[in-house]
């Protein structure tokens, strides 16, 4: 059996009341890379039922560090949290946020005098203003002493028999509540209130501490053990390390998406390429630089995030206007976004010569699948090539092996960079032969759904059906009509050209030879792609391909 890593401390068991008090006093904090309130009421109720019935709810994991300082939430819904006492070891909650957020909110008396910071609550639709300050409905939990079920206010029918759950750790308040119970069932109600209070007072939870000052180790540990599957990205950790009253990275990213990227159709760009573009702007290694190093840079120069936002917008506009790429999910490699963002940060308004070089670079890295399995060292070389090209206005291509156009796989998979290049070529053909960028607009509107399989499925001809030669760029709304016309031979010569169907392929189709049709069309499109790529490569490599 393998020994536990040295940074793990011995687990121990704590009463639930002690654990919640440590959160209340600031001894355990909830870092801002966590999402504290994402469980709905049904899941919270299940947790409370487990404690009522004495069922284990799993261990809690905390990160203990003497030096690493992570920005943490100051509120949990309507509850304000204390700062950690001076000189104490920092403890950050890594695993168990949903469970402890549920329990802390349910077992503490709601505070109505201070408004809730909606940023602290994921489920903002659960918040209302009662005139005395906002409060989440889900925070006030009651125990129905008759049905012995947990309810929230709007689910309650008889308020007189509802015991506020926050009384279980307050003996004086609980006794006062019990004295006010009256009626023939008062004795049973008091007994039920004592039982539920004992359930929570006697409940114990295992604590697993991880003791390390290595931020990356804590990050990796969180990613591997988080039981709710809400993985922490590097952006979450950088956000926690850089947060202040004047700078909130996640909000900044949201503003960039809304104000700069949404108008050009890039609102869904992931945080990862934005973060990598920030690293590139600082001259850092986009892979090897850790969260702490990037955070140190951002604290000194926060304006780089806005710079990157503008450069990403320019890259998005360029990809659409010059390459026919309408959205970030259709970019063959996310690293292309990072490199292009750095290019347009350094050269916001490149001349025609540079634009042509950037276009050629984009298609070469796509058709050559340059970024497949790319290492950090190779990305640094590619960034260096791009910066040199921008500085000199001359092509720069540092690559260890001869350039080659990667063959398109026999089974079409739109997730592959090479398959996306195929789709863009079909769109470009339609753009050249039709009005108003017809093909590119189909990709913009329908995305991968615009790559339609036209020939019907036939037993024993799976390869024919799955082949790239059976993929046609057609808006889904018109796919059925196009299929009917094609199979009946009712499409004219201009329409055949728009869909890259050579005469010999059409002849095979009319003869009922579907495999030959698909193969001939596949080969024809491959030749069109080669003619497109050849002059681009020739700019960078003597003799081209």
Q: What percent of the residues sit in helical stretches (DSSP H or I)?
A: 40-55%
Uncertain residue segments = 1-6, 112-137
Structural class, by secondary structure, is alpha+beta
Q: What fraction strand?
A: 5-15%
Strand order of the biggest β-sheet: 1-11-2-5
Describe the global form: elongated
Q: Report the radius of gyration as a whole number of Å.
A: 31 Å
Average pLDDT score: 85
Number of domains: 3
What is the overall number of helices? 21
Q: What is the secondary structure topology, with strand pairs?
A:
Elements: E1 12-15, H1 16-25, H2 41-52, E2 60-65, E3 75-76, E4 79-80, E5 90-95, H3 97-107, E6 127-129, E7 134-136, E8 141-144, E9 149-152, E10 162-164, H4 171-179, H5 186-201, E11 204-211, H6 215-225, H7 234-242, H8 249-261, H9 271-281, H10 291-300, H11 303-323, H12 334-346, H13 352-367, H14 376-392, H15 417-433, H16 438-446, E12 451-453, H17 462-466, E13 471-473, H18 479-487, H19 493-498, H20 503-510, H21 514-540
Parallel strand pairs: 2-11
Antiparallel strand pairs: 1-11, 2-5, 3-4, 6-7, 8-9, 8-10, 12-13
